[in-house]
Design a protein that fits this description.
It is a single chain. The protein is an all-alpha fold. The chain has three helices and no strands. The chain is flat and about 60 Å long. The protein starts with 12 loop residues before the first helix and ends in a 5-residue tail after the last helix.
Length: about 100
């Protein structure tokens, strides 16, 4: 007879909150700024891109609607700037872990 191994459950939401609140303040600030910059900036970028092309903004939630390839050069540069800025916040926040 073999023993049945106990299957571990994935961590719950409480564990994730405790892990976040247990990290240094610099890490918390960096991760919040990363998320806010990427989400808010990306939504504003795509809002104005859709407005420029006279497409209703709600159409972006349709899975078959592909918008990323219709960006112009300026919008690609803004997207790259958003990625660099938000990742810089994440790196700044995670640098507190090494102290």
């Amino acid at each position: 007879m073999s023993e049945v191994q106990e299957i571990r459950k994935p961590p719950g939401f409480d564990f994730i909150i405790e892990a976040f609140l247990g990290s240094p303040a610099q890490t918390q600030i960096g991760m919040v700024m990363f998320a806010a910059t990427w989400l808010i900036g990306g939504n504003i970028l795509f809002y104005f891109s859709m407005k420029r092309r006279d497409i209703p903004y709600w159409k972006i939630i349709i899975p078959s609607f592909i918008t990323i390839f219709d960006l112009n050069g300026r919008e690609w540069l803004i997207l790259a700037g958003l990625a660099i800025t938000s990742l810089s916040f994440a790196l700044w926040g995670s640098s507190a872990q090494n102290v």
